[in-house]
């Protein structure tokens, strides 16, 4: 049966589209919007009751959470390519996927919000700098990993690289200077220049800043 991907490619759905294209898997794309209320339609809520994108349907299997979807696709369809080459590589791919979600994504999204997602009059340079300071430790961790190897796991581009890089695609979009971490910078450039990765490039839109500090906190927690 055909694979169906739900989600606007301006959202985290671009991560899954990248994986599907890397694996050369045909899929139907249903561009469910998150800014226009599309994720709250009853039809979509039956697929993902969290009212978030992306979601993926593969036969009878329904999945949400972009990084988990990509791990599934790599394991199921990526043998010999982006998939793990054994239990150890599988564990490492899962490790790096959880790492980027826990150590990088929220701070990077907060920095990006104050550099391009919020409208210009609602951006806060101090908040952006606070988030960037928090990212220095995980960036150093990634730099150390890549200093003597081109890819994160197994000596080749895998789902580990794709998942981490897809989250970090906000770096060039927000024009964040990462020259202090040259190995990471080179890896990021090589990964994002892969032909299948092109969907990250048009992710440009603005959202209103929540009116209260609590609203800002709720957006990123």
UniProtKB/TrEMBL annotation:
InterPro entries found in the cross-reference section: Glutathione-S-Trfase_C-like (IPR010987), Glutathione-S-Trfase_C_sf (IPR036282), Glutathione_S-Trfase (IPR040079), Glutathione_S-Trfase_N (IPR004045), GST_C (IPR004046), Thioredoxin-like_sf (IPR036249)
Gene Ontology MF term list: transferase activity
Span of domain GST C-terminal: 86-214
UniProt keyword Transferase present: yes
Listed SUPFAM superfamilies: GST C-terminal domain-like, Thioredoxin-like
GST N-terminal domain sequence ranges: 1-81
Keywords per UniProt: Transferase
Protein name: Glutathione S-transferase family protein
């Amino acid at each position: 049966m055909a694979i169906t991907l739900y989600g606007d490619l301006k959202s985290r759905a671009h991560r899954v589209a990248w994986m599907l294209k890397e694996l050369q898997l045909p899929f139907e794309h249903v561009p469910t919007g998150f800014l226009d209320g599309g994720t709250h339609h009853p039809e979509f809520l039956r697929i993902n009751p969290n009212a978030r994108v992306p979601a993926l349907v593969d036969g009878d299997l329904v999945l949400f959470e972009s990084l988990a979807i990509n791990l599934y696709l790599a394991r199921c369809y990526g043998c010999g390519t982006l998939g793990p080459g054994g239990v150890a590589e599988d564990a490492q791919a899962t490790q790096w996927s959880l790492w980027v979600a826990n150590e990088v994504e929220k701070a990077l999204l907060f920095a990006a919000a104050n550099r391009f997602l919020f409208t210009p009059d609602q951006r806060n340079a101090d908040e952006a700098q606070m988030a960037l300071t928090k990212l220095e430790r995980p960036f150093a961790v990634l730099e150390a990993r890549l200093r003597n190897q081109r890819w994160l796991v197994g000596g080749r581009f895998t789902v580990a690289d794709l998942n981490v890089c897809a989250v970090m695609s906000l770096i060039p979009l927000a024009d964040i200077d990462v020259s202090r971490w040259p190995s990471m910078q080179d890896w990021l450039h090589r990964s994002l220049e892969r032909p299948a990765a092109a969907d990250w490039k048009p992710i440009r839109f603005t959202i209103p800043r929540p009116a209260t500090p609590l609203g800002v906190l709720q957006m990123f927690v």
